[in-house]
Amino acid sequence: MLAIIGGTGLTQLANLEVSRRQVVGTPYGEPSGPLTFGAIRGVPAVFLARHGYGHTIPPHQVNYRANLWALKEQGASGIVSVVSVGGIRADLGPGKIVVPHQIVDYTWGRMSTFFENEAPVKHVDFTEPYTAGLRNRLLSAAKACGEPVVDGAVYAATQGPRLETAAEIDRLERDGADIVGMTGMPEAALAREIELGYAAIAVVVNHAAGRGASARGVALQEIEEVLKHSVSRVRKIIEAFVAA
Ligand code: HPA
User: Does ligand 1 lie within 6 Å of residue 84's CB atom?
Assistant: First the structure.
């Protein structure tokens, strides 16, 4: 079963025919909210709003471990994560939809592993942080429904909840990052640890700090406008993905 974790602007999936909502406890605490089970075009799927259904949980306080554990326990085999990001690369302006292929993690202080107090110590391979099969399916789905998406980008995961300084964005760019967001990690790594397939759709909602229209500041009110327009495109891609 496919799981969808919705980010900012995607607290529900209009095309999900909801059959039930279920509160799921985990050894790691409470997920961001009840899981929403249903079907998209007749195919079973489960949805979770990463920031809670009322968008009340900031990126650094999301219980990523509980979210992933709950989805896995309830039968998810793969996750499509929807995230909003700032665009660092000049061609990645607001409204672009990107399927990233790499991650650089700048977050700190988050519960970022399931492997605690284990002997012997466990490691996972994370050379390719996103699952190739799921990424390819996402790209095919976008093509099938005529939504242009950018194939490949390096996602920088920052701590937030504040946005970055212009100098920090310059540094991220020197590090090779193309887009910047606050929730991509530790989510992707935790998925890998419990052997859940994981891929992301990133919606660029603003130029990153100091870039393009954000040269003198990020206009937060415009982010909402971009999200409103982009979310229906993301839904379309997910629908095509599930139906394929
Ligand atoms: N920086 C970090 N996270 C974000 C941004 C940004 O500019 N836009 C949306 N999420």
Answer: yes
What is the pLDDT confidence band of residue 15, given thresholds at 50, 70 and 90?
Answer: confident
> Does the beta carbon of 59 lie inside 6 Å of ligand 1?
no
**DSSP assigned state of 26:** B
Pocket probe for ligand 1: among 8, 84, 203, the residue whose CB has the most ligand atoms within 8 Å is 84
Find out if CATH 3.40.50.620 is the number for domain 2-243.
no
Nearest protein CA to atom 2 of ligand 1, as residue: 181
Counting ligand 1 atoms within 8 A of each CB, the residue from 205, 207, 225 with the most, and so the one to mutate, is 205
pLDDT at 21: 94
At 118-154, the pLDDT tens digits run: 888 889 999 999 999 999 999 999 999 999 999 999 9
Instruction: Measure 84 CA to ligand 1 centroid, in angstroms.
Output: 7
| 108-110-111 Cα angle (round to 5) | 140
> Ligand 1 atom closest to Cα of 163?
1
Contact of 73 with 182, CB cutoff 8 Å: no
Cβ burial of 100 (10 Å; 0-12, 13-18, 19+) is: buried
Give percent of the chain with pLDDT exceeding 90.
87
b/e code 194-207 from CB counts within 10 Å (16+ = b): eebbbbbbbbbbbb
- Domain residue limits, the chain: 2-243
CA-CA distance, 86 to 204, in Å (whole number)? 5
d(CA 209, CA 207): 6
Task: Using the predicted structure, report yes or no on whether residue 14 has a pLDDT greater than 80.
Answer: no
